[in-house]
Design a protein that fits this description.
With 107 residues, the protein is mainly β. The protein has a domain of 74 residues: Ubiquitin-like (UB roll) (Roll), CATH 3.10.20. It contains one helix and six strands. The strands form two sheets. Strands 2-1-6-5 form a four-stranded mixed beta sheet, with helices on one face. A two-stranded antiparallel sheet has the order 3-4. A hairpin with a 6-residue loop joins β5 and β6. The radius of gyration is 13 Å and the shape is globular. 21% of the residues are buried.
Length: 107
């Protein structure tokens, strides 16, 4: 089913929705981040992922300084319309620590 941006529920997280990011080909989970409506619109307009940085309180395009960009291949919406799953082509590493995935620590 095709969903429009206006149907997404940005109200639960103070205007932000969580975004789970997976590598398109391997389905490896790369990271979890957040988007507001502007970040999602910019992502759709450019084809490259833009997030909302909660610490800097501003939009940031993934890879704008590192070159480790995420090209959007598919965006899926959960059943409650309040979380996104992005399937991306990851260039370089996804994690700011230099690891491929942010999920490299075991509990």
């Amino acid at each position: 089913m095709l969903i429009e941006i206006k149907e997404l529920d940005f109200t639960k997280g103070d205007g932000l929705i969580p975004v789970v990011v997976q590598e398109y080909k391997t389905k490896e989970v790369l990271m979890v981040a957040y988007m507001n409506e502007d970040a999602l619109k910019k992502t759709l307009d450019t084809g490259y992922v833009t997030y909302w940085s909660r610490s800097r309180k501003k939009l940031w395009m993934k890879g704008e300084t590192s070159g480790n960009t995420q090209k959007v291949r598919k965006i899926l919406v959960d059943c409650d319309y309040d979380t996104l799953l992005l399937l991306v082509e990851q260039k370089g590493n996804a994690c700011h620590t230099g690891k491929r995935s942010c999920f490299h620590n075991q509990l």
